[in-house]
Amino acid sequence: MSIKxxxxxxxxxxxxxxVCVLFTASITFAEASWQGTSWVSTGxxxxxxxMKSNLDYLKAQVDGFSGxxxxxxxxxxxxxxxxxxxxxxxxxxxxxxxxxxFSMGASYTPATDGTSLNNMYGIAWTHSNIGGESIAGLxxxxxxxxxxxxxxxxxxxxxxxxxxxxxRFLDQNNRSYYLDPASVSYLNDIRxxxxxxxxxxxxxxxxxxxxxxxxxxxxDVRSDIxxxxxxxxxxxxxxxxxxxxxxxxxxxxxxxxKKLKKDIKTLSGLSIINKLRGVSFNWKENSKPSVGLIAQExxxxxxxxxxxxxxxxxxxxxxxxxxxxxxxxxxxxxxKVNAQQAEIEALKNAVNK
Length: 353
Hints:
- By secondary structure, the chain is of the alpha+beta class.
- It has 4 domains: 2-76, no CATH class; 93-190, no CATH class; 192-253, no CATH class; 266-353, no CATH class.
- It is built from 5 helices and 20 strands.
- The protein has helices at 9-24, 48-62, 269-273, 295-301, 323-352, and strands at residues 2-4, 30-34, 39-45, 65-66, 73-76, 99-103, 122-127, 140-146, 149-154, 158-160, 169-170, 178-179, 195-196, 204-205, 226-227, 235-236, 279-282, 289-292, 306-308, 315-317.
- Strands 6-7-8-9-10 form a 5-stranded antiparallel sheet, with no helix packed on it.
- A hairpin with a 6-residue loop joins β19 and β20 (315-317).
- α1 packs antiparallel against α2 (48-62).
- The protein is rod-shaped and about 170 Å long.
């Protein structure tokens, strides 16, 4: 790989070349030693042994680098090792430029002045101030670039143009909340506009409008209202009136526990029943014949059994509750029949005497 780096190794190589030339000219050198950043002369003639030691040191400094100069490219055949923790690659700061961090080849680097990514393949550092291929809102950010196009970015947040893949995604403040795409997830609140079936998008759930689903298995389903998907005039409203075309059931149970009631009184059955009118009729919607009562007429006698839908203005009757006055009416008629039967028996006995 190629690494753009200003390195003292090239200077050592030049110095080595000068030393070799001077050495072959039989020039006497003063002995010197490397003191971290420069050569320090001792003022003494250098021995052949010391000269070899110095040359070996110079060779070690440039070993692994070839070509270029101290301001150009160098090809490394081994790792670049920094001698302290705070030492590393240092660029020029400008929040409106792209700083090259790593490129996959010398032909895939950003513009030298940092104004463009060109056809870069690699990693660049920048700030959202530059616009362009940076991602707004991430402030200082690392860009992961392919052919000059940012595919992902990491700064004050994480952005990606394509998929985010993980086994589980955890809430940073409460790890008991998580999203597990392959298993059970535990989330505090989800508010989508619409949820589609992953295999067939013709099935969907739209919390704010109509939904279409093949089948529902649930322990608990809660909604303000459930509409028939083909005819919204049929619906179930758990908190109010519902309208259905037909219900087939083996039984219906009504809440009737004495613990739920107060002000209990016995009805006068016959006086109520005699005021009601049973009728036959045809439904306007489908002309089907039926029998029943008229809600407005029932309302005049038993208003508590009539309900008004405020949205449609349609009135309904609680037919099941008419059992109560019917029972009392039967009991009253039975009492009258029993009394009349007793009178008949008395008359028969009187005639037979």
